[in-house]
Design goal:
Layout (H helix, E strand, L loop, with lengths): L4 E6 L3 H12 L4 E5 L5 H6 L1 H20 L12 H24 L4 E4 L2 E5 L2 E4 L4 E10 L3 E3 L13 H4 L8 E5 L3 H12 L3 E6 L10 H13 L3 E4 L3 E7 L2 E6 L4 E4 L1 E4 L3 E3 L6 H4 L22 E3 L10 H16 L13 E3 L5 E5 L2 H4 L5 E8 L13 E8 L5 E7 L3 H13 L4 H6 L19 E4 L2 E4 L1
Parallel strand pairs: 1-2, 1-6, 2-3, 6-16, 8-9, 8-14, 9-10
Antiparallel strand pairs: 4-5, 5-6, 7-15, 11-12, 12-13, 17-18, 18-21, 19-20, 19-22, 20-21, 22-23
Bound molecules: flavin-adenine dinucleotide (FAD).
């Protein structure tokens, strides 16, 4: 059987681009189909613009402490400049991604694709079919929008980067990392910001000290938190949106943003017709090598619902290409993934939370709380939090959780020794770098408290 291509990839985001490029490097004839912009969520409306906006918003904190270092700052902010400069940067990255695909010979097709068979794809715009020995679905996800009256008045992260102007106030529904990151972005840029969340604390699944520490940091920055409440309905009220809450209260906001989770892009892809199985959460079911229930069809990235992070999608795409086109069978290890929340204060974590570790045998917990040095000349009271969780026997480091300036950069480096199975003794042998916040990780003496037989002792 001959095919038009060895591989057709649907979706030119983090996972699809890496898979296409690597497969082409190994000699495969590859086409990649993209309905929006090359680079996908991360480059166009995710990690990259988000981090740029985080930088923009953090000047607020710097201006706040500037006078304690002798500076007088009279600053104003122009949203249009930020949006235009962001657009210039993501367009530059988009061209870079395009060039990286074209160099090894990947054909880029701008269209919407649907799966037409185990070895064929239909191009919706062009109205033609392509055949391939293998198909790779890397279609990512999209923001979930609650089904409530007036939902069309709200924005999601897709629109937040390109608002025509900053609203005077914003209500963000959600408690995950996208909700808290956008809350600190908007608040830092001077928008009166409120988070509404149905749970009882933001960042479910993170270590409790990170959750409570961030909660305090958000409140210190003037962000209002409303828990155990949801939005029931919305309606237009002049330039504002009038929001009805589940507790019966009604209030106007300049904008409302849903950050209520992301849904895998499987709808209308034709997967049911070819027998590609989905998980109970609607993601594509894959094995350790990213192969679906149809042997010629693979899937990587957010559409598989595994970790929903760019470096993970990239690694899955790379290992798919190794396995299928380089005779080098590789499975991604999803067990230890460093994660950051680029809120203010920032969070960086890897490994088990304290609650998880406490169910894995006897553990020691080392905890430090202190004012980050940049705040010590000012009246700011915010604390930095560093937590190391180790096994009692052998001292293997099970988890590291950091809240405060530089947390993400620190955790990326902590991920290396943790991946090598480092113990507390390995951390202790390391000479501290002074003055730094990270030196706390190598200078912990006695545990702050312990867990023995699941019971917390001391602390
Ligand atoms: P995507 O990058 O989403 O790419 C999928 C591509 O497929 C898209 O370009 C889409 O247009 C295209 N497509 C979909 N359906 C079709 C079709 N039928 N035909 C043709 N094309 C199609 N991750 C991090 O690691 N760090 C962060 O700081 C971070 N911040 C984020 C902030 C926000 C606001 C968001 C939304 C996400 C963030 N992420 C972050 C997550 C990260 O963006 C995703 O995990 C990553 O982009 C997933 O890559 P992917 O290849 O699976 O899908």
């Amino acid at each position: 059987m001959t095919y038009d291509y060895d591989l057709v990839v649907i979706g030119a985001g983090s996972g699809g681009v890496r898979a296409a490029r690597m497969a082409a490097t190994y000699g495969a004839k590859v086409a990649i189909i993209e309905e929006f912009r090359v680079g996908g969520t991360c480059v166009i409306r995710g990690c990259v613009p988000k981090k740029l906006y985080v930088y923009a918003s953090r000047f607020h904190d710097l201006f706040d402490v500037a006078s304690s270092f002798g500076w007088q700052v009279d600053a104003t902010f122009d949203w249009a400049t930020l949006v235009a400069n962001k657009e210039k940067e993501i367009t530059r990255l988009e061209s870079g991604y395009t060039a990286n695909l074209e160099k090894p010979g990947v054909e880029i097709i701008k269209d919407r694709a649907v799966v037409a068979g185990p070895n064929s794809v239909h191009l919706v715009g062009q109205g033609r079919d392509l055949s391939a020995r293998y198909l790779l679905i890397a279609t990512g996800g999209h923001p979930y929008i609650p089904h409530i009256p007036g939902a069309e008045l709200a924005i999601t992260s897709n629109e937040a980067f390109d608002l025509p102007q900053l609203p005077h106030s914003i209500l963000i529904e959600g408690g995950g990392y996208i909700a808290v990151e956008f809350a600190t972005i908007f608040a830092g840029l001077g928008v009166n910001t409120t988070i509404i969340y149905r749970g009882d604390c933001i960042l479910r699944g993170f270590d409790d000290d990170m959750r409570r520490g961030l909660e305090a940091g958000l409140i210190e920055r003037g962000i209002r938190l409303i828990y155990q409440t949801t939005i029931k309905s919305m309606s237009r009220q002049g330039d504002d949106i009038s929001v009805n809450f589940s507790d019966g209260v009604t209030a106007p906001f300049g904008a409302v943003m849903f950050a209520t989770g992301r849904t895998p892009n499987v709808h209308g892809l034709g997967l049911d017709k070819v027998g590609v199985e989905l998980t109970s959460t609607g993601a594509i079911k894959v094995d350790a090598y990213s192969q679906t229930s149809v042997t010629s069809i693979y899937a990587v990235g957010d559409v598989t619902g595994r970790a929903q992070l760019t470096p993970v999608a990239i690694r899955e795409g790379w290992y798919f290409a190794e396995t299928v086109f380089n005779n080098n069978k590789l499975a991604v290890d999803h067990s230890q993934i460093p994660t950051a929340v680029f809120s203010d204060p920032e969070i960086g974590v890897i490994g088990l939370t304290e609650a998880e570790a406490a169910t894995h045998g006897d553990i020691d917990v080392y905890l430090a709380r202190f004012r980050p040095m940049i705040n010590t000349l000012s009246t700011r009271t915010e604390r930095m939090v560093l937590k190391l969780i180790t096994e009692k026997d052998g001292g293997k480091v099970l988890g590291c959780h950091i809240l405060g300036p530089g947390a993400a950069e620190m955790i990326q480096l902590v991920a290396i020794p943790m991946g090598m199975g480092a113990t507390k003794a390995d951390f202790d042998r390391t000479i501290a770098l002074h003055p730094s916040a990270a030196e706390e990780l190598v200078t912990f003496k006695a545990p702050t408290y312990t867990y023995r037989n699941g019971e917390k002792l001391g602390g």
